[in-house]
Specification:
mainly alpha, Tetracycline Repressor, domain 2, 75% helix
Length: 201
C-alpha cells in the first residue's frame, strides 16, 4: 500500500471514530440529558478511551458544536469554478454540502442545533466556534483570490458573509417542523443573494 492510500485509510478511520463518538454523545444527551451525561460515558459507549475523546473534541461542548459540516462546505467551496464570485461560490458550496446530508445526519443536526440553543454551556462556546469558523473560511477565501488570510478586505468580506447568514437565524430556527433546517438554509441562500446584489432595499 502506497503512502497516499495509507494516509487516506488513516483519515477515513479518524472520520469514522469522530462520527461514532458524536453519534453516541448525541444519543446519550437525548436519553439522559446533557448535564447528566459524562465524557466517560460517551467514551465507553463509543468504545474509546476518554483521552481519545479529547483528541477529537477538546470539550464536551465541542462534541455538539463541531461536526464535519464545515469540512464539507470547504471542500465544496474549493471545487467551485474561478468564474464565480466569492459569494456565489459560498452559496454553491452551501447547496452542495447540504445535498450530502442523510436523514440520520439531518436528525443529528437538528438535535445539536436544539442543544446549542437550550444548554448555556454550549451557547457560551458558540462565539469561540464562530471565530474559528470565520478564520477557516478566511483562509479558504484568501487562497481562492491569492491574498493573505489576514488581509483586511478578506476578513471584512468573510465577516459580511457570516453576518448575513446569522441574520436569518432565530432561537427556534432549527426546532419544530421536520424540514425547518432546509427552510433555514434556503433563507440563508436568499440572504446571500441579497448580499451579492449589494443589499438593495
Amino acid at each position: 500500500m502506497d503512502l497516499m492510500n495509507q494516509g487516506s485509510l488513516r483519515e477515513r478511520k479518524k472520520a469514522r471514530t469522530r462520527a461514532s463518538i458524536r453519534e453516541h454523545a448525541l444519543r446519550l444527551f437525548r436519553d439522559h440529558g446533557y448535564d447528566d451525561t459524562t465524557v466517560e460515558q460517551i467514551a465507553a459507549a463509543a468504545e474509546v478511551s476518554p483521552s481519545t475523546f479529547f483528541r477529537y473534541f477538546p470539550t464536551k461542548e465541542d462534541v455538539v458544536l463541531r461536526d464535519d459540516f464545515d469540512d464539507r462546505i470547504l471542500e465544496a467551496f474549493a471545487r467551485q469554478p474561478p468564474s464565480l464570485t466569492p459569494v456565489a461560490a459560498v452559496r454553491a458550496a452551501l447547496r452542495d454540502a447540504i445535498a450530502t446530508f442523510t436523514p440520520v445526519e439531518w436528525e443529528e443536526f437538528h438535535q445539536a442545533a436544539a442543544l446549542s440553543v437550550t444548554v448555556p454551556e454550549i451557547r457560551a462556546r458558540q462565539l469561540d466556534e464562530l471565530s474559528r469558523t470565520i478564520d477557516v473560511l478566511a483562509d479558504a477565501l484568501a487562497k481562492r483570490i491569492g491574498r493573505p488570510a489576514d488581509d483586511l478586505k478578506v476578513r471584512t468580506y468573510v465577516g459580511a458573509v457570516f453576518g448575513v447568514m446569522i441574520s436569518v437565524l432565530t432561537p427556534d430556527a432549527f426546532t419544530g417542523a421536520a424540514n425547518i433546517g432546509e427552510q433555514t438554509f434556503r433563507r440563508m441562500d436568499e440572504a446571500l443573494a441579497l448580499l451579492e446584489e449589494g443589499l438593495p432595499l
